[in-house]
């Protein structure tokens, strides 16, 4: 972490050092209206020291007290030398401090969609018990929020690699040590890259309709369908120019399939709608994963599980989290929205698709009736945050 006073003669030197550092390792803070931060704004320096320490997992119980001594501007390294401001626009509900001992979910949306798709899922009645015990940070990819204006002409849209790599700056900014990653479509690719780059910062990753190979025709067909369906209150639509830039970045993404087995050492859950065109991709990813780390769920009779069967998705999220020892007190309520076929990446059976697996082994169909569960007391108020751009 580099810090410099804006009035000092060392701002340029600090910028030069920042540009030379490996992406993801270095951050830079400029303190306005001062020359020597250590003596002129000790509270700002103390605040930066705490933020830095908690970003590497130290002193997590300390509460950050925002100083009024001047103001700071923070930057995170991109692989191409560009900088991303840490003072992102965001919407906040509740109090993050109340959730410091709970589970934090980091969500990333698909191309042709927005963070509102994940927000609608979180607000579904099937997520009520999880909402009471968890925090949610919804990432809004640049220019993809409903009603967004055109991105500036000189704006260079980040690559999928950059997006995945630099999500860690959100965790550092909010002082979140670990998250459960959730991604849909292109967002699944981004959250997977995040886990590959920063495995120590995730409990696990859960993806929906992941892609394993490039297929331009199939991708454009899906994008057109999503764009037609994406409207809020009949007024707010996505900016098509901005969506096209996100789509272009997704089409030009680098291949990650050969790296999955090498870089993923955390729990991973894949989900796909059996009517979608990504079942084959999901199976390919599943086969590449290390045995014992990855499971696969196929939801019957649907194409987009996140929007068509939120009850099934919430059920899978809870099962996934409880398998990692998170939120053990929440009773599982079995949804009646369709049925599930699941497959674990076990030895000997991991190369078989759900249709090929033998009954009684790694393929299971869940058809347990809905259970009555006593209402649990609310542990804390829900916190929800949207990181814009």
Label this structure with key terms.
389 residues, alpha/beta, 10-stranded mixed beta sheet, 14 strands
Strand order of the largest sheet: 5-14-7-6-8-9-10-11-12-13
- The helix count comes to 14
Assembly type of the shown chains? Answer: single chain
- How are helices and strands ordered from N to C? EHEHHEEEEHHEHHEHEHHHEHEHHEEE
Termini separation: 22 Å
Question: Residue share in helices?
Answer: 25-40%
Q: What structural class do you assign from the helix and strand content?
A: alpha/beta
Shape: globular
**Low-confidence region ranges:** 68-95, 97-101, 231-235, 346-383
- What fraction strand? 15-25%
Counted beta strands: 14
Based on CA atoms alone, the radius of gyration comes out at: 22 Å
Mean pLDDT reading:
76
| Main sheet summary | 10 strands, mixed
Structure notes:
This protein is an alpha/beta fold. Helices cover 32% and strands 20% of the residues. It has helices at residues 11-20, 37-40, 42-55, 115-122, 128-131, 160-166, 168-174, 186-197, 216-229, 240-251, 260-263, 279-288, 305-308, 310-323, and strands spanning 2-5, 27-31, 72-77, 83-85, 90-93, 103-108, 134-140, 179-184, 202-208, 267-273, 294-299, 340-344, 363-366, 383-388. The strands form 2 sheets. Strands 5-14-7-6-8-9-10-11-12-13 form a 10-stranded mixed sheet, sandwiched between helices. Strands 1-2-3-4 form a 4-stranded mixed sheet, with helices on both faces. Helix 6 (160-166) packs across helix 8. The radius of gyration is 22 Å and the shape is globular. Mean pLDDT is 76; it is low at 68-95, 97-101, 231-235 and 346-383.
């Amino acid at each position: 972490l580099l810090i410099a006073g804006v009035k000092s003669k060392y701002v340029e030197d600090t910028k030069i050092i920042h540009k030379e550092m490996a992406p993801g390792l270095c951050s830079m803070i400029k303190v306005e209206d001062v020359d020597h931060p250590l003596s002129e704004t000790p509270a700002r320096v103390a605040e930066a020291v705490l933020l830095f320490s908690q970003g590497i997992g130290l002193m997590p119980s300390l509460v950050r007290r925002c100083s009024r001594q001047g103001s700071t501007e923070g930057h995170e390294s991109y692989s191409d030398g560009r900088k991303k401001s840490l003072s992102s626009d965001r919407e906040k509900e509740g109090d993050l401090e109340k959730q410091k001992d709970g589970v934090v979910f980091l969500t990333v949306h698909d191309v042709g969609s927005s963070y509102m798709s994940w927000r609608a899922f979180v607000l579904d009645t099937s997520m009520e018990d999880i909402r009471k015990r968890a925090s949610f940070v919804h990432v809004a990819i640049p220019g993809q929020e409903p009603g967004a204006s055109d991105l500036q002409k000189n704006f260079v849209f980040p690559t999928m690699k950059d997006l995945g790599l630099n999500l860690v700056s959100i965790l550092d900014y909010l002082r979140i040590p670990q998250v459960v990653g959730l991604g849909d479509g292109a967002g699944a690719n981004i959250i997977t890259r995040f886990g590959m780059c920063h495995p120590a910062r995730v409990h696990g990753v859960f993806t929906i309709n992941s892609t394993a190979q490039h297929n331009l025709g199939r991708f454009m067909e899906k994008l057109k369908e999503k764009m037609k369906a994406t409207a809020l209150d009949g007024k707010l639509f996505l900016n098509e120019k901005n969506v096209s830039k996100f789509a272009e970045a997704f089409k030009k993404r680098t291949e990650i399939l050969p790296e999955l087995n090498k870089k993923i050492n955390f729990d991973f859950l894949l989900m796909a709608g059996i009517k979608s065109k990504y079942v084959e991709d999901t199976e390919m990813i599943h086969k590449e994963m290390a045995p014992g780390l990855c499971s696969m769920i196929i939801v019957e009779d649907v194409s987009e599980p996140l929007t068509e069967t939120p009850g099934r998705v919430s059920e899978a999220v809870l099962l996934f989290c409880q398998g990692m020892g998170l939120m053990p007190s929440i009773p599982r309520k079995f949804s009646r929205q369709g049925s599930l076929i699941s497959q674990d990446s076990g030895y000997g059976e991991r190369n078989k698709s759900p249709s090929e697996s033998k009954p009684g082994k790694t393929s299971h169909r869940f058809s347990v009736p809905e259970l009555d569960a006593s209402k649990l007391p609310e542990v804390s108020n829900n916190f929800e945050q949207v990181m814009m751009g």
